[in-house]
Design goal:
Protein name: Type 1 glutamine amidotransferase domain-containing protein
Organism: Rhizobium changzhiense
Distance between the termini: 22 Å
Structural class: alpha/beta
Pfam family, one: ThiJ_like
CATH topology: Rossmann fold
Keywords: Glutamine amidotransferase, Signal, Transferase
Strand content: 5-15%
Order of helices and strands: HEEEHEHEHEHEHEHHEEEH
Strand order of the largest sheet: 5-4-1-6-7-11-10
GO biological process, one term: methylglyoxal catabolic process to D-lactate via S-lactoyl-glutathione
């Protein structure tokens, strides 16, 4: 199958060949290839291979169309530590297939990436999309959590009850809908705590995200660095209700109204299944 067939490139040009039964899914990725840590240290990162490509494969196989976007429209980066068969249940062939599919899509190519900006998404019209998905990797903690463009998009999806799915570190992007996302994040980074802001659209929602326990267990990936804060703490203090799996790194998803969240890399297939069910 030609994977590029599933891309909604025509949509980005203002036209669409969307069939009557297919859904149109917007996948939002980070522009960043890094996460700034404490003490001036930097962790090279991006999206997680399986968290992006397992849902992408499921969506394309089901006949849905996909549009890829980042806040600025720049080509995203993959976290090289995620190119590991352990994230594919030990199946190296599945991992290689995802790598090949990613290469064919050209997402990270400087000259042929189909990625568009969130400003272009707004020009096309949010109503054109049936669902939005934000995969993880640490990169969303660098820019998506304070992106005003993403905050506007997610608020529209919330107000219109449209499916909103996020996995692993992806749910940190929900902070972008705070009345003052940058102020909240800055306060959290400097003080380790922040006051909840009235009017947050996800206040009281049940959710999951990469847990504090998992962060502690995965600290070695940061090469001796330390994150400025953990997403579980920030989202909980913002006013959402956290849920986690009984066993760390096992699949766990939470659904609440239009929102679907997955806890960790192992949860990506379950998020994809729930997303597909909502699109039917």
């Amino acid at each position: 199958m030609n994977l590029l067939r599933g891309l909604a490139i025509a949509l980005a040009l203002g036209t669409s060949t969307l069939s009557a039964h297919a859904g149109n899914v917007l996948i939002v990725l980070s522009d960043s290839d890094r996460l700034d840590l404490k003490d001036g240290k930097v962790f090279k990162t991006g999206f997680y291979l399986n968290e992006l490509m397992q849902p992408v494969q499921a969506l394309l196989d089901a006949g849905h169309e996909i549009t890829f976007a980042t806040p600025k429209g720049t080509a995203p980066s993959v976290d090289v530590t995620s190119i590991d068969k352990m994230y594919f249940g030990g199946d190296e062939a599945a991992m290689k297939a995802s790598e090949a599919q990613l290469s064919e899509l050209g997402l990270m190519s400087s000259d042929r990436s189909p990625v568009i900006s969130l400003a272009r998404v707004e020009q096309i019209g949010y109503e054109h999309f049936d669902a939005v998905y934000v995969p993880g990797g640490h990169a969303p903690m660098q820019d998506l959590l304070v992106s005003s463009e993403l905050g506007k998009l997610l608020t529209w999806f919330h107000e219109n009850g449209r499916t909103t799915a996020l996995a692993c570190h992806g749910p940190i992007a929900l902070l972008s809908t705070l009345p003052d996302a940058q102020g909240f994040v800055t306060q959290f980074e400097t003080a380790g705590t922040a006051k909840a802001q009235a009017g947050w659209v996800y206040g009281g929602y049940r959710f999951t995200v990469f847990s504090n326990q998992e962060e502690e267990m995965a600290k070695g990936l940061l090469g001796g660095g330390e994150m400025k804060f953990y997403p579980q703490d920030a989202l909980t203090q913002a006013g959402a209700q956290f849920s986690q799996a009984h066993v760390s790194f096992s699949a766990h998803i939470v659904t609440d109204r239009e929102l679907i969240t997955g806890q960790n890399p192992a949860s990506a297939p379950a998020v994809a299944r729930e997303l597909l069910a909502r699109l039917k």
